[in-house]
Design goal:
The protein is an alpha/beta fold and 111 residues long. 39% of the residues lie in helices and 22% in strands. Strand 2 (11-17), helix 1 (24-36) and strand 3 form a beta-alpha-beta unit.
Length: 111
């Protein structure tokens, strides 16, 4: 899996390219956890190129979200594909995240 990263102002945007399944997803999740544990984290994960994710990916995103909540912020998910959105809904974890139609909306939500 390829991982695109960019900085938009003070916000880090990560975009996994391909299915987020174990073991490939572990590298992405390790990079994500490193970001959320940094000073003053503002993180958006764009899932526009993620057609599918498994339970390990959901657990990793949840763990990152938990870390951010203890720091009075939240993990923002943007451009979530219909299949991935359904996975979030079916697993009952969708309320743990903030969802946005596009990355720029997610980035602006930090203002």
């Amino acid at each position: 899996m390829k991982i695109e990263r960019q900085k938009m102002g003070t916000v880090d945007v990560m975009a996994p390219i391909g299915a987020m399944i174990d073991p490939e997803a572990q590298d992405f999740l390790a990079q994500l956890l490193k970001l959320v544990e940094s000073a003053n984290p503002r993180v958006v994960v764009s899932l526009h190129e993620t057609a599918y994710m498994d339970s390990a990916a959901i657990e990793g995103l949840w763990a990152a979200s938990d870390v951010l909540q203890t720091r009075a912020t939240s993990l923002k998910l943007a451009c979530v594909t219909p299949t991935c959105r359904e996975i979030f809904e079916l697993t009952g974890v969708s309320r743990q995240f903030s969802f946005f139609q596009d990355v720029s909306d997610a980035v602006r939500s930090f203002l």
